[in-house]
Design goal:
alpha/beta, Rossmann fold, 5-stranded parallel β-sheet, 8 helices, 5 strands, about 60% helix
Length: about 170
């Protein structure tokens, strides 16, 4: 089977919360001339509630069901740059979609740097000791990020514009 390009499939960005998926993704979309979709924003818009409210009302399982439906909707549309939620990789079905229907890029970021950016963010899975929480998420999700990503880009020390350019260059 011939390998399909990101122009045909679109690009999905995966990685820890606060790793730069949304900020670099929006810039990458401009560089590639593609639409940009933030999966968390789409879930919130479709649910009419914030992600913390969804976690409170429906738990993580309810949120993940909504996230999967939103991911399927994006995958069924035309090529776009998609910033996933940090935990989108939690479900095997989502990893299959990311692997098969996008060129998926893992934005690798140092957990300590992610924790510093996440402090006070109100992210549902990062309450309490934020750095310990980020490290737990990284250890749990690392193999899943590797499983679905065709490309990995290290983001440490990069501003969003530099990261977007590095991803663009890696896609070529």
């Amino acid at each position: 089977m011939e390998k399909r390009s990101y122009r045909e499939l679109g690009v999905a960005l995966v990685g820890l919360p606060a790793s730069g998926k949304t900020s670099a993704g929006a810039l990458l979309a401009g560089l590639l001339g593609m639409p940009f979709v933030d999966l968390d924003e789409r879930v919130e818009r479709e649910a009419g509630r914030s992600i913390p409210a969804l976690f409170e009302d429906e738990g993580e399982d309810g949120f993940r069901r909504r996230e999967r439906a939103a991911l399927e909707g994006v995958a069924a549309g035309g090529p776009a740059v998609l910033a996933t939620g940090g935990g989108t990789v939690e479900l095997p079905e989502n990893r299959a979609i990311l692997r098969d229907r996008f060129v998926t890029v893992w934005i690798k970021a140092d957990p300590a740097a992610v924790a510093a950016r996440s402090a006070g963010s109100g992210r549902p899975l990062l309450s309490g000791d934020v750095e310990a929480g980020v490290r737990r998420l990284y250890e749990r999700r690392r193999a899943w990020y590797e499983e679905c990503a065709a490309i990995a880009v290290q983001s440490d020390g990069m501003r969003p514009a530099m990261l977007a350019e590095a991803i663009r260059d890696a896609l070529r």
